[in-house]
Design goal:
The complex is a heterodimer. By secondary structure, chain A is mainly α. In chain A, about 60% of the residues lie in helices and about 0% in strands. Chain A has five helices and no strands. In chain A, helix 2 packs across helix 4. Chain A starts with a helix and ends in a 5-residue tail after the last helix. By secondary structure, chain B is mainly α. Chain B has a single domain, classed as Fumarate reductase/succinate dehydrogenase, transmembrane subunit (3 helical TM bundles of succinate and fumarate reductases, Up-down Bundle). Chain B contains four helices and no strands. The longest helix of chain B is centred in the C-terminal third of the chain and has 32 residues. The N and C termini of chain B lie far apart (about 50 Å). Classes of the chains: A mainly alpha, B mainly alpha. Chain A: It is found in: Membrane. Chain A: InterPro entries: SQR/QFR_C/D, SuccDH_FuR_B_TM-su.
Chain lengths: ~160, ~130
């Protein structure tokens, strides 16, 4: 064996360099790079923490939405006749109060962003072609921005005497 | 479909599947719901006519289905938060799922009459 075994003795952190695991066995000279190994080419800081922030947002908005949405269902679908009493006059009565306007505005924004981020995850999971993913996420983004802005406009410009 | 979509089965995977399916359904409803509510900016008549759709018995039944989806997504979402943030969350994830299912059954039974009252009165009077 002509290989100098001393050349193969490297710290395990350098195993991916091809110098081996340091076992002295040439068969171990080339090993699969361990997952998530930081190499010289790895940026010190990945671009942003976007995915972590998205993960955190889902949990925080989710907890707030439990209160906002279940309250919304209780009032609009269950109490005092439920859906049978919903009408323009009913909405006008609710939105006469800044409290319920604020409730609905916060619910609109949190629910749309929570839902859009969930759909983004689903698209990433199932759309395998790059172009398909891009188009679906583009469509999702346009629909989300449109819906959030429309809903916001409706809440702020509501006129009970229309 | 990607290969090997049956992960490990059992409570963990099936609750994930149900969370995903209910989430997508709720998102599509939310989209439609913001659009129908926007009709309050058109005219009281336009809004009341679309709301009349919500009062059709079949649609009222679908509202009960919507409540079912939202309740599961909400309760299981709280379980996911507990799994992620509570040190013993992963250990008790199965027990928490069955707790979620139990609370869901109770709330579904409790909301049956309030949600479907309109349909029940339409069909059976009173």
């Amino acid at each position: 064996m002509s290989t100098d075994t001393n050349d193969l003795v490297v710290p395990s952190v350098h195993a991916h360099t091809g110098k081996g695991l340091g076992t002295g066995n040439p068969a171990d000279a080339f090993v699969v790079e361990p997952a998530r190994t930081r190499t010289r080419k790895t940026p010190r800081r990945t671009r942003t923490n976007f995915e972590m922030l998205a993960w955190l947002f889902m949990r925080l908005s989710g907890v707030v939405l439990v209160v906002l949405v279940l309250g919304h269902l209780l009032i609009n679908l269950m109490l005092d006749g439920g859906v049978s009493r919903v009408s323009f006059a009913f909405v006008a009565g609710r939105w006469a109060s800044p409290f319920w306007q604020g409730w609905d505005l916060l619910m609109l924004w949190l629910a749309m962003l929570h839902g859009a981020n969930g759909m983004r995850t689903v698209i990433n999971d199932y759309a395998e072609k790059d172009a398909t993913r891009l188009w679906l996420k583009g469509l999702l983004g346009v629909a989300t921005v449109f819906t959030v802005l429309l809903g916001t406009l409706v809440i702020f410009t509501f006129d009970p005497n229309i | 479909m990607p290969a090997g979509t049956l992960y490990r089965g059992r409570e963990g995977m099936w609750s994930w599947v149900a969370h995903r399916v209910t989430g997508v359904l709720i998102f599509f409803f939310l989209f439609a719901h913001v659009l129908d509510t926007a009709l309050v900016r058109v005219s009281p008549e336009a809004y009341d006519s679309v709301i009349a759709t919500y009062k059709i018995p079949l649609v009222n039944l679908m509202e009960y289905g919507l409540v079912a989806a939202i309740l599961f997504h909400a309760l299981n979402g709280l379980r996911v938060v507990a799994v992620d943030f509570w040190a013993k969350g992963p250990k008790y994830q199965k027990q928490m799922l069955w707790t979620v299912v139990g609370i869901w059954v109770v709330l579904m039974a409790g909301s049956f009459y309030p949600v479907l009252e309109h349909t029940l009165r339409t069909w059976f009077g009173g």
